[in-house]
Design brief:
binds pyridoxal-5'-phosphate; globular; 14% strand; alpha/beta; 398 residues
Length: 398
């Protein structure tokens, strides 16, 4: 966890996550690459982590059941397992992040109920083999599409291979909440989810708009909001003074990740605004720009000293969540990048404490060395070029 003496870094100079703009709703031509929305029955949950909880609940997993889980993970993938009374049993992944099925097989037991598989950063696992492995051993397959809202294997969308799949809408759309539970084979219609209330509904609309203003989007409507937003800020300051100084502000200003599993939100649904954006934003625009931004980053950063792209090619069926770079000296690069205002996402920075550190040396290395940079649809060329220059200068290549 972050230490008390952690350096405070400046605000990120370019947006880490997608940002709402007029462009979010342009281009309704059909995306050539399908999404998890095409993979089966869909339930709009509060977040991806809570969708894992819903899947486990729906499958009646708990009571010391074992779930084969990747050693390269984020805490919010494991917390829902513990919450429902199941036990994660960690398996190895290979250097290219593919599932080590031999290792998975060696960890099967009479208590194994499910295998959880993650498509890291949007790059699909070998789902045909993994599906047949699960059928052979009669265990459930849970497909973690948190990084792979889009993607296809042999014409079948990602999310359609698992008995259940989960996804994380806010990582792909300009919204601050939203996870999906998807199932091709199970009836999810019996599950009913409740709204998080009017206050949250309002926040889920206002936060993305404010983030857009901060990064100079939606300029046309900005003047209309200035008055009301400053009144709200004043009211909040007054209210905060009245409360104890210790009290933590409950919701982060925008869903920028790292806020873990919350059992109280398992039975809650996605906000109306986030649901609307997830259903109506241009998917073609998202898939095209993420792919072209990834290609630009790849071309510019593939031969730098001291780091290398985790995936040196972008196959045609992939829509990347981020651009992962593997650093030789991550502890040196990190503060330099952060001080320059470069947004860095660090999936798996912290691994489950109770996992034996000897389980998977590769995962330990990935956890330490891999930084992810944004390649989302709302970065313009000048922002992308700015980031490329900063990354190059830190690597001594520019
Ligand atoms: C982010 C993430 C989750 C959890 O999704 P949230 O929407 O943040 O709750 C699950 N699995 C993976 C691989 C993730 O990166």
């Amino acid at each position: 966890m972050p230490s008390a003496h952690a350096e405070i870094y400046p605000r990120e100079h370019i947006p880490k996550q997608p940002v709402l703009s007029g462009l979010s709703f342009t281009d309704y031509s059909r995306s050539e690459i399908p999404s998890v929305l095409d993979a089966g029955e869909v339930l709009f949950a509060s977040r991806g982590s809570m969708a894992i909880g819903l899947a486990l609940q729906h499958a009646q997993i708990g009571n010391d059941d074992e779930i084969l889980s990747p050693a390269y993970h984020c805490i919010s993938m494991i917390e829902p397992m513990v919450w429902c009374g199941a036990r994660p049993v960690f398996y190895r992944i290979k250097e290219n992040t593919s599932v080590d099925l031999d290792d998975v097989e060696s960890r099967l037991s009479s208590r194994t109920r499910a295998l959880l598989v993650t498509h890291y950063f949007g790059f699909p696992q070998d789902m045909v083999r993994i599906r047949s492995f699960c059928d052979t051993h009669r265990i459930l397959l849970i497909e973690d599409c948190a990084h792979a809202f889009f993607g296809v294997i042999d014409g079948a969308p990602l999310g359609s291979f698992g008995d259940y799949a989960i996804a994380s809408a806010w990582k792909f759309f300009p919204i601050c909440d939203g996870g999906l539970l998807i199932s091709r084979s199970r009836k999810l219609s019996g599950v009913s989810l409740q709204s998080r209330g009017l206050r949250f509904e309002a926040k889920s609309l206002i936060n993305p708009i404010e983030l857009a203003f901060e990064y100079r989007r939606l300029n046309v409507i900005h003047p209309l909001f200035k008055g009301p937003l400053s009144i709200r800020d004043k009211l909040q300051r007054v209210r905060r003074k009245r409360r104890s100084a210790q009290e933590v502000v409950s919701t982060p200003s925008i869903g920028l990740g790292g806020w873990g599993f919350d059992a109280a939100l398992v039975s809650k649904k996605m906000s109306v605004f986030s649901w609307f954006v997830t259903r109506t934003a241009s998917r073609n625009r998202i898939t095209r720009f993420r792919r072209s931004n990834y290609d630009k980053l790849l071309a510019a950063l593939r031969h730098l000293p001291g780091c290398r792209p985790l995936f040196a090619i972008l196959p045609p069926n992939v829509v990347p969540q981020v651009f992962p770079l593997v650093y030789d000296e991550p502890h040196l690069a990190f503060p330099l990048l952060k001080r320059a205002g470069v947004p860095i996402i660090r999936f798996g920075e912290y691994l489950w404490e109770r996992m034996d550190a000897a389980t998977c040396p590769v995962s330990n290395e990935l956890s330490r060395r891999v930084f992810q940079f944004p390649c989302h649809q709302d970065l313009d060329d000048s922002e992308l070029n700015w980031m490329i220059d900063k990354i190059k200068s830190v690597c001594g290549g520019g």
